[in-house]
Design brief:
The complex is a heterodimer of chains A (about 250) and B (about 250). With about 250 residues, chain A is of the alpha/beta class. Chain A has nine helices and ten strands. In chain A, strand 9 and strand 10 form a beta hairpin. Chain A starts with a strand and ends with a helix. With about 250 residues, chain B is mostly helical. Chain B has one domain. The relative contact order of chain B is 0.18. Classes of the chains: A alpha/beta (about 250), B mainly alpha (about 250). At the A-B interface, helix 2, strand 6 and helix 3 of A face helix 5 of B.
């Protein structure tokens, strides 16, 4: 379980996160949703430690991450995986090299064991026999799947996905969403997904935090989100022509 | 006034993260050999080309400027050797490498920054500054002295070739000149400067690449800054080191 308690984050005079408290449960796909600029990426970066919180706490299974030094954080970092918006694959490494990177860095497994593990996770994301391709030879969806494979290769307890569907067509987005959800259920991972894609929200939103102007404005799930009377939430949910028509 | 100080402070803080023991020795050695190839051996062609022509020009200019019959023609060889060893090879070649290698380092690391590859390393618990910059620093410090010795040799040969084809000075006089009053200390001085310059090129370029924020435009700006600042620092350190070592 990951908890954020009274998190505040400033950039100069800009108060981006305002006393944010939230809880993300294991074995569930926990979504952070909101408009662009609402603070959801900043919140995710605070949770993973890429940004330091100005006040408040981040707890990983009651372990106070915000109070830890770099060395102490390394232990938790090896328990988490992250899928970035642009996949963030290492350009100079092949698919295999990318997925194997955490194993090379942090384990003492033999070459055979590492290859076996890499092939297993590549198979899990439906990318068998693509080991020797370079990132530049992959489509957007394949890059995301390689990034997922790299994120799960160390058997993480926590998985962060920053806008996993950005730049993908609706069908590929759905494939990625379902893959994230399957892995979450299969391994009991605490998964946090940052998105503004309503398809994802309705498809995999086991738990949803709606962030508005740097504050948690609403919490619920995919069943409840369509039936709320909250104006800001409804403006977001029914913000597209498609959802407006569906509502009618 | 505050901005350069703030930049210097950020540079020092980054170096504290860079100059530490690598997390995984095996990966470090792989990276090191890769960087020696990319940053050093890949520059052999340009270093050779510039050194030969630099030596030739120095020799021709010296020969044309000796018009007193009291000055022996062997001075052409002597002057070419001294100019090449003391200044042209270590300083000019390092300035050229600051352009070629510095922009490469800054743009490579800058692109990794803006495409979140550095964030991906940090998330995994990797000291990204050490992983990305330290092998480049070690590779530069190891391979640049080799390149500079190669450059000295080719510069002197270039001077000799120019004299042979132009017939301004006999080969006998030229070779006699390059052997007059040779002091091994000049090589030590040149290589000491080279090691400092190699460190400056790798760390300053790595710093500007690592600090990049934004997109393609900012990567280009970081690359330009890396070359300009490395060159300025090299010129300043050249004066300081010359005063310390020869003064």
């Amino acid at each position: 379980m990951i908890e954020g308690r009274n998190i505040n984050k400033f950039f100069g005079d800009n108060h981006v996160l305002r006393d944010v408290s939230c809880t993300f449960h294991p074995g569930k796909t926990n979504l952070i949703i909101g408009q662009s600029g609402s603070g959801k990426t900043v919140l995710m970066k605070c949770l993973v430690g890429l940004f330091e919180v100005d006040s408040g706490q981040v707890l990983y299974d009651s372990r106070n991450f915000s109070a830890m030094n770099i060395e102490q954080r390394k232990e938790i970092r090896q328990e988490l995986g992250m899928l970035f918006q642009g996949a963030a694959l290492f350009d100079s490494l092949t698919v295999e090299g990318n997925v194997m990177f955490p194993l090379n860095m942090f384990t003492k497994k033999s070459a055979e064991e590492k290859i076996e593990r890499v092939n297993f996770v590549l198979k899990r994301v439906n990318l068998e026999n693509r080991n020797k391709l370079m990132p530049s030879e992959l489509s957007g969806g394949m890059k995301k799947r390689v990034a997922i494979a790299r994120a799960i290769v160390m058997n993480p307890k926590y998985l962060f996905c920053d806008e996993p569907n950005s730049g993908l067509d609706p069908q590929t987005s759905n494939v990625i969403d379902l893959l994230i959800q399957e892995l979450t259920y299969e391994y009991g991972i605490t998964t946090i997904v940052n998105t503004h894609d309503m398809n994802s929200v309705l498809s995999i939103g086991d738990s949803i935090e709606f962030i508005y102007q740097g504050q948690i404005w609403w919490s619920g799930n995919k069943e409840e989100i369509l039936h709320m009377g909250n104006k800001e939430l409804n403006d977001f949910v029914f913000g597209t022509e498609l959802t407006k028509r569906l509502r009618k | 006034m505050l901005r350069p100080l703030s930049t210097l402070g950020s540079y020092v803080l980054l170096m504290r993260r860079v100059l530490t023991k690598p997390q995984k020795g095996k990966l470090f050695w792989q990276q090191l050999f890769f960087e020696i190839d990319q940053l050093g051996l890949d520059s052999l062609g340009i270093v050779a080309f510039i050194s030969v022509f630099m030596g030739a020009v120095v020799a021709i200019q010296t020969a044309y400027n000796i018009d007193s019959p009291l000055i022996p023609m062997s001075m052409v060889g002597f002057t070419t050797r001294q100019s090449i060893i003391l200044e042209f090879s270590p300083t000019v070649i390092c300035l050229i490498l600051a352009g070629k290698v510095g922009s490469r380092i800054a743009s490579q690391i800058g692109t990794m920054r803006v495409t979140e590859q550095i964030d991906a390393l940090e998330i995994m618990g990797v000291n990204s500054a050490n992983y990305l910059i330290f092998p480049k620093v070690v590779a530069s410090v190891l391979i640049y002295p080799v390149l500079i010795v190669f450059s000295m040799w080719l510069g002197i040969i270039g001077g000799g070739a120019a004299m042979m084809f132009s017939k301004l000075v006999s080969m006998h006089d030229y070779i006699h000149g390059i052997r007059i009053d040779f002091e091994a200390f000049t090589i030590f001085y040149a290589l000491t400067k080279t090691i400092f310059f190699a460190f400056i090129i790798a760390t300053v370029s790595g710093f500007f690449g690592y600090q990049t924020q934004g997109g393609a435009l900012e990567v280009g700006q970081a690359s330009t800054k890396a070359v300009v600042v490395s060159s300025i620092v090299i010129i300043l350190f050249n004066l300081v080191l010359t005063q310390l070592l020869l003064g």
